[in-house]
Fold:
Amino acid sequence: MLRSAPKISDLIFSPGRPPQVGVNGHLLPVQIPHMEILSADDTRRIASELLGNNTNAIAALREHGACDASYGVPGLSRFRVNVFIQRGSCAVVMRVIPTQIPTFEQLGLPLRLEEIADLHDGIVLVAGASGSGKSSTLAAILDALNAKHSYHIITIEDPLEFLHNHKRCTIHQRELHSDAPSFALALKAALRQSPKVILVGSLRDRDTIETVLEAAETGHLVLTSLRATDCENAVERLVASFDASERPALRSRLARTLRYVVCQRLVPRKGGEGMLPAVEILKSSPAIRHCIEVGSQPGATLLEAIDASEALGMQSFDHDIARLVRSGLVDVDAALSHATHPQELRRELGL
Structure:
């Protein structure tokens, strides 16, 4: 299946369908002898093979109807696996994890993001929709830190994705369920393990957010991710995780500790040859800190603060998408469909 097309992103096994691969956002069938159409027994056997003796994942599948796991084929690839129950049968989605850690340049990210490796503390949040490349960006940031500094780094992931070798840093990678029971407990333990940098795979609950803030406030650099549509939405999602009475204090803490928000969207490349990242970048500055602390208001939103701070290295989605159009990499229709404010993008492009 991996050899059926270049740049495979996912493998999907569903009863009543042939095996399928994800290519540039589309599913393509793969003809495999004796597996032209998968049965419920086929997908159950595939799920059983992938989960093996992972008792935690098997228990989660039985109790919750879905589970996550990792799987590797030595010398070929690693996968993030999700097995779930639908119509009483198993379905499987496997996200392909590259064996080599990508660079910022290979990911098509702004090279100025390499500045993140010079941070000493605070929170770096990578945001975007599912499948937008958040894990790859976090891996590239962590690899830049690994090459540049002599730190102790602890990662807490569900499941482990990119495998990092020790370079200048010493890196310990912990996988949820097999190495630690929860993000919150693993993160609290990490604070006693003398790391300089902590990577938390994703922010899923209030307790994890609270402990991430505590880590950042006590001199750690915390890298993490969140599903969000843009930088402003990412900040507001963090705020909304707390009760109304706690939000003013939380905003103040975020304003002090949030160093970067990097939000990503994948936009189809012109000609259908793959996807390109459009990137929105928020950096800590007096104007940004003020917007976070008081909340966005008419005429004083985070997006407006980002647009007014391009000289400081910030950029909005629409400006980056306009750059992709002007470079001839993305056509106008695709750009407008992925813009935050299509009408403003039209004006910027002179349409």
